């Protein structure tokens, strides 16, 4: 179970992760409009991430890394297919056919999907007769409602920045989805959410018996690269598709590889190990609000009433999820302490100490 100080670190880590990932929506949409291949891009992205993470996995986990069994290897291949190959291809196709705002907003379905997957697989328990269980359910629903409001209700302008004329060029560079297949984009965004939720839960299961997070993610990247490379080689026959054509494409590849796939998902897998899968997905609603803020500051977009209302709902929902998780932790710590006292009392005998065994270390959620 996480201590109070470790909980603070988890909250800070997920906030940093969401800041980096929010910018990813806008940057990748610009790269897609510049013409980068949706199959070649994830190959380069994950190669960069693997180059960054593989040495860390080798040196930091050299002494504590468990033996790689056939069962673990099969799970790593599956996680690579779900979390890297399918997840990233669905995301890029969905983003290319919709918009950064929509792709960010629909990802708020991930907490609910993860919550369901975690319950079905026995990783999470919902106690509707306790306030922490009710808070987690209400928080997830409220956050999803806030993201829906941002997407569907624009409302009047509440704040409009004085945008310089040069920003119109940036706005046009991002483009829109008017000439795209919106239905295909929505289906792919939903597939992306399903894969992301499954990835979170599958990682949580594997980390319980193979607690080497850098090694897990490095192998996940490796198998994802092999799968993506096989698809890309058979599909992208034109040599020009494999070339980086501009500085913008190069920046997007390194940003996605270093910041999102490298640093970002290393943070995610660490938080999954310490805080559980629902804790991670509970922070996704913050991303939609950050995308709206970034778009306003960087691109001169206005704040509308719908965006403010949705942001308030997202913050309230996020607070409920985090508060519910905190209450669950406190209750579990109390139960563990009571059980330990009871066991020591039963073991008490003549000449024996009340504490016949050392205090057990806190277990992860």
TrEMBL record:
Pfam families: EamA. Keywords: Membrane, Transmembrane, Transmembrane helix. Residues 343-365 are annotated as: Disordered. One of its GO terms (cellular component) is membrane. InterPro entries: EamA_dom, EmrE-like, WAT1-related. The chain crosses the membrane at residues 12-31, 43-60, 72-93, 105-123, 135-153, 182-202, 214-233, 253-271, 278-297, 303-322. GO terms for molecular function: transmembrane transporter activity. It is found in: Membrane. Residues 19-151, 184-322 form the EamA domain. It comes from the Eukaryota. It is a multi-pass membrane protein. Belongs to the drug/metabolite transporter (DMT) superfamily. Plant drug/metabolite exporter (P-DME) (TC 2.A.7.4) family. This is WAT1-related protein.
